[in-house]
Design goal:
Layout lengths: L1 H21 L4 H46 L5 H15 L5 E6 L6 E14 L7 E14 L2
Antiparallel strand pairs: 1-2, 2-3
Helix pairs in contact: 2-3
Length: 146
């Protein structure tokens, strides 16, 4: 008799366990609570990556505008080019862009000017370390030596 009652308790326990496992009420809420942090992080990652691509495109645009200014006015110095690029980038909300200008010797009546820019964009997420993206680009323009 004692043996039968232990067995009955075990059977009731297994039945309760099966009923608990088969109950699906609240399952979708639990799944949502487990998945939503990853989806939010993915959303922020997509936004941050898109913002970095926008920043890179803006740096390239400012560098091309600076190079066009240099092409039209050969007497501009590196400080002038940096000022033109900085003016355009501050309007877009970007800072700390380094612009350098190097000029090759004239050959055949033309000198080639290489305008380079480097920019570091830092993606930061809460609870994670910062992820810096270093970007550099260059534009080469011909200058008519005069």
């Amino acid at each position: 008799m004692y043996r039968w009652s232990v067995s009955a308790k075990a059977i009731r326990y297994k039945q309760k366990l099966r009923a608990f496992a088969a109950n699906i009420e609240g399952g979708s809420g639990l799944e949502f609570a487990l998945i939503v942090p990853f989806l939010v992080m993915l959303l922020f990652a997509i936004f941050a990556f898109g913002w970095s691509m926008n920043s890179i495109s803006s740096v390239r645009y400012a560098l091309e505008a600076s190079a066009r200014s240099l092409q039209l006015n050969n007497t501009l110095t590196q400080a002038d080019i940096q000022a033109i690029a900085t003016q355009k980038l501050q309007a877009l909300g970007l800072q700390n862009v380094n612009v350098t200008v190097t000029t090759d010797p004239a050959s055949g009546g033309f000198a080639m000017a290489h305008v380079n820019a480097s920019y570091a964009f830092v993606i930061s997420f809460p609870y994670f370390s910062n992820y810096p993206i270093s970007y550099s680009t260059s534009v080469t323009v011909p200058m008519i030596s005069g």
